[in-house]
Amino acid sequence: MYMASKQAMQEWSERFAHTLRPGDVVSLEGTLGAGKTQLVQWMAQALGADRPASSPTFSLVNHYRTSKGSLYHLDLYRLETPQELEDIDYETYFYPEEAITFLEWAEKAEEYLPHGLIHVQIIVKEGEAREVNVWRD
After folding, report:
1. Measured distance CA(47)–CA(131) in Å, rounded
2. DSSP symbols for 11-80
3. Which of 34, 44, 42 is nearest to 13 (CA)?
4. Count of CB atoms within 10 A of residue 50's CB?
5. How far apart (Å, rounded) are the C-alpha atoms in residues 39 and 51?
6. What is the pLDDT of residues 76-130, one digit of tens each?
7. Whose CA is closest to 8, among 136, 131, 135, 133?
8. Cβ neighbours of residue 112 under 8 Å, at least 6 residues apart?
C-alpha cells in the first residue's frame, strides 16, 4: 500500500498496532532511513507504552510496557553472527507469549527466526512517500 506522507504512515502504523496480539513477532524490513524505528515509535505510542520508544541499535533490545503487555524492540544491525543471539536469551523475544516483538534487520538472525513471522516491508519512494507491504510466513 502506498502512503504519500509521514502523517499517512503514522495513521497506518497506529491502525496496524491495534491488530497485533501477544505472541506476534514483526520483522521490519527496509533500507537504512526507511522509517523502521519510527514505525515502532508510533506503534508503541498507539499501544500506550510506558515511555517513548527509542532505537535499540546500541543496546540491542528495548523493553516497554503497553496496554497489550510487553513490547520488545530489537535492532540486529550490529549482530556479526546469528549465534550471538544465544547470549541475549533470544527465545524470550522470538517466541513471546505475553509480548509483541519488533525486529529490525531480522535477516541477520537466520535460522533463529520463528515461524509465523509478520513481515512489514518499507520501500522508500519520492520524498516522505513510502510503500508498505505486509505478509505472514
Report:
1. 23
2. HHHHHHHTT--TT-EEEEE--TTSSHHHHHHHHHHHTT-SS-----TTTSEEEEEETTEEEEEEE-TT-S
3. 42
4. 10
5. 15
6. 998 889 889 988 889 999 999 999 999 999 999 988 999 999 999 999 999 999 9
7. 131
8. 82, 85, 90, 94
